[in-house]
Hints:
Layout: E1 2-13, E2 16-27, E3 31-35, H1 42-49, E4 57-62, E5 65-66, E6 79-81, H2 93-101, H3 107-115, H4 131-142, E7 149-153, H5 161-176, E8 180-185, H6 188-194, E9 197-202, E10 205-211, H7 212-218, E11 222-228, H8 234-241, E12 246-251, E13 256-260, H9 265-275, E14 280-287, H10 290-298
Parallel strand pairs: 3-8, 3-9, 6-7, 7-8
Antiparallel strand pairs: 1-2, 1-4, 4-5, 9-10, 11-13, 11-14, 12-13
Amino acid sequence: MQMISVKGLVKDFGSFRALNGLDMQVKAGEIYGFIGQNGAGKTTTMNILAGLSRPAQGECNVNGRDVTKLTHPGDLNIGYLPEDPKFYPWMTAQETLVYLSGVRKTGHIGDILRWTGLMEAQDRRVGGFSRGMKQRLGIGAALIRNPQLLILDEPSSALDPEGRSEVLHLIKELKNMGKTIVVSTHILDDVERVCDTVGMINAGKMMFEKPLAQLQKESAQPLFDITPVSSVRPEILDEMKMLPGVVSLTKTAKAFTIKAVDKEVSVSVMGFLAEHGIVIESFSLRKARLEDLFLQEVNGK
């Protein structure tokens, strides 16, 4: 069952095209990691999925509803956490949830406070909360109506390691509760820790959309991180790409990374470097990460 189905989504802001034919499919019960550079179109997409914005073209069905025909975002019956959730600072955590629920204090609100780890802080004013506590309160607020789908925009952004760990734990718990979660983030390590499927957007288009396990399998080929003492001419790098067993070469500011079919390719790579008189500061072998695939797609390598 598809919880979200998006086809050919287009969104313009004046002369700028933020989304350019975006396709996206999210299955019920999964954690979907939505990644991309700043300005790639993540937040624009999340706003449309949450019913806060309308596309210029394309189809967008969320939780069984056509977003283009909504009269109010609340009709989607989803939970939404913006990147920087805002609360009345003079309210306590408990008062905030009661206010957002539209009813008097209930056991359900107590359950949310316990589940988010805010029970002991329920009578503290939100204005004194840390960023991590506000994020947990935001997730709790998104659960007020007990939705089956939650859309979380950069939920672990700007958090310290402890705060990130707490938020990621809550996201995994949401899946155990049978929820579907879409997480927009630029923290690729978080995606590898919790997500089932990964979709990458770049320049308003979906570059790939695959199960995380498949991406990890495809990324099983070894990587050689090479830092030369001085810059290497572009034509030399182009020639290196043609070596037998070299899958791709991605250049950064002061180094480059080679993806190879196996470890033995390191022999021919080192021989090529020596033959061309390229002095190396470091040459290291490692396994591929999601970040490497991200950079490869962004750089078009």
